[in-house]
Amino acid sequence: MDKHSDITLPGGATTTLHVAGTEATSAPFVLVMPAMGVPAGYYGPFVDELARHGLAAGVADYTGQDESLPHVGRGRDLGYDDLAHGWLPAVVDAVRRQHDGPVVALGHSLGGHVLAAHLAGPTPAVDAAVLIGSGTPHWRAQQGVKTLAQTQLIAVISRLCGFWPGARLGFGGTQAVTLMREWAAFSRTGRLAPGGRNIASELAERTLPLLVVDLDNDTLAPPAAVDELVELFASADVERFTFTKAADAPGKAVNHYSFARSPEIIGERIAAWVTGRVGERARP
Question: Domain Serine aminopeptidase S33, which positions (predicted)?
């Protein structure tokens, strides 16, 4: 995975797109959308594995995360809308300046929420989608009252501090107060509502190919939580599988994060789906 380009985002922040893969500009391009607090570089082995199977692929940090400057913090705020309708279109635009083929967004965990918010908008920037280890944080689909208490405490601390100090507290990295407030509201109500707008009806009308990958032993996106998120994509053409490994299979045991560093098997399966669904074609 190599540095591709620096991108100026809405509001003046910057991020860096890292890419790997074929020089054929008509091949599908998979854009990885990270989980909360996970730097883009963590997905390097997964991006490289997709490239080994004939795709172009890339990843970039969200606004204010890791290589993206300035970092979020007190006085530097953003929410789901900023990522869904600011960061994502800017990154896809940078991809399309060098790439004629279809773009597939792959949302991991929080990345799936951002992708859902984007696809509820009027002009989606991508041609197909993959959700991997991504479910609603709704407390009823997670660990019940424990999840409810934890997420609402995070919202309170974020409001008091002006940001979420997750890098110090051991969860999610440093995050913007509005994003954590909206995420906590999603957990409390079960409704994804960027900027206070319930996007369920708009998202339900979106038609596109969607691959959903459940991860074995995933305590952060259990099947019930994935079910709730997938239900929002009522008009999508959905395929779904659960990724497991035999005890003697290569690489790390499967969990919420392992595929990013140990992409054996799963990278090939996702690449096969992308190739089969969107193929190699130029955008009109």
Answer: 30-140
